[in-house]
């Protein structure tokens, strides 16, 4: 055999080996990699119970408590259960325990029948609409939870345009009503309220090794939920924030975005205690995973995760109106 032929055969063999290695890597790591980069796991083949389990556990490794013995034990139990599982439904209960061990009470694996990251109470979502109403000289912004599949730009625009109209009509202060806001996409909430927020970092998400700031610039928001921009500019208005026991997740994060501002004060009841940042991953079978990866830190330096956030003042809308009137001569 000639030297040239030997070289060609060697090169050809190396190419085939590289192709096979790449295919194997895509098969093994592809679902996790695609989920992390796109939000949806792609299996490039059958999502068997074992592959599904490996992908869920790999992703859960980003969780806030993934370095705990509880997650290690739950992961081992899930992998053992996957050995004899015939369907994905067989393995889901064990995986849900592992996901909750990795991320805490704000984390969950949703089955296809109910598979959605929507933290918003359906009844609240149906009865409350984002918008602004003016009573006397006070603009009241109703800020309900919002699902990531909703028209988030319209939601944000309804809030920001209402606030700017109130400003232009001579309103003297604002109330941000987060009562009943069970969470969802924080981006449209902050974009809608951006007229009331100063530019810069409004809060940050903190992991064990890093922090991720949420920033407002003009009427644009990035770093928290969907990056969005509204219009109209700013309104330097004294702002009361209303919360209750049903204010949760991104509703709590929105509350914290006002915490520590000189002309803002919160009123109501302690919140639900889900002040943390989540990632949501979708799977081909229609299931999804919501995983807590970070705690919320306010500009005051306070850090929150699974404990209720106490408002500055207990009370309700009447107390907020009294504060605006007495402290800021706004009525």
UniProtKB/TrEMBL annotation:
Origin superkingdom: Bacteria
Molecular function per GO: endopeptidase activity; serine-type peptidase activity
InterPro entries according to UniProt: ClpP/crotonase-like_dom_sf, Tail-specific_protease
Coiled coil (residue ranges): none
Gene Ontology process terms (BP): proteolysis; signal transduction
GO cellular component terms, A-Z: outer membrane-bounded periplasmic space
Residue ranges of every copy of the Tail specific protease domain listed in the record: 108-316
Protein's name in the database: Tail specific protease domain-containing protein
Native organism: Corynebacterium ureicelerivorans
């Amino acid at each position: 055999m000639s030297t040239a032929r030997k070289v060609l055969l060697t090169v050809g063999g190396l190419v085939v080996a590289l192709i096979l290695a790449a295919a194997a890597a895509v098969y093994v790591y592809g679902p996790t990699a695609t989920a992390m980069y796109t939000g949806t796991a792609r299996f490039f083949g059958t999502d068997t119970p074992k592959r599904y389990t490996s992908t869920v556990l790999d992703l859960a490794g980003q969780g806030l408590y993934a370095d705990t013995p509880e997650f290690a034990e739950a992961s081992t139990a899930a992998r053992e259960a996957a050995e004899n599982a015939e369907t994905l439904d067989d393995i889901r209960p064990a995986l849900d325990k592992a996901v909750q061990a990795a991320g805490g009470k704000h984390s969950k694996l949703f089955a296809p029948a109910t598979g959605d990251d929507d933290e918003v109470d359906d009844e609240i979502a149906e009865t409350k609409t984002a918008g602004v109403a003016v009573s006397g000289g006070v603009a009241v912004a109703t800020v309900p939870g919002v699902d990531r599949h909703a028209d988030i730009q319209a939601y944000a625009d309804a809030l920001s345009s209402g606030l700017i109209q109130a400003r232009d009509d001579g309103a003297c202060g604002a109330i941000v009503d987060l009562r009943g806001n069970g969470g969802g996409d924080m981006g449209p909430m902050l974009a809608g309220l951006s007229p009331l927020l100063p530019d810069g970092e409004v809060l940050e998400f903190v992991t064990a090794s890093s922090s991720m700031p949420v920033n407002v610039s003009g009427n644009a928001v990035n770093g928290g939920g969907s990056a969005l921009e509204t219009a109209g500019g700013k309104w330097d208005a004294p702002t009361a924030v209303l919360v209750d026991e049903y204010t949760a997740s991104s509703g709590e994060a929105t509350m914290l975005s006002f915490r520590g501002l000189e002309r803002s004060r919160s009123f109501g009841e302690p919140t639900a205690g889900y002040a943390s940042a989540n990632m949501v991953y979708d799977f081909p079978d229609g299931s999804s995973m919501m995983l807590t990866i970070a705690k919320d830190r306010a500009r005051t330096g306070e850090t929150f995760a699974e404990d209720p956030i106490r408002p500055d003042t207990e009370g309700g809308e009447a107390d907020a109106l009294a504060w605006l009137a007495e402290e800021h001569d706004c009525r």
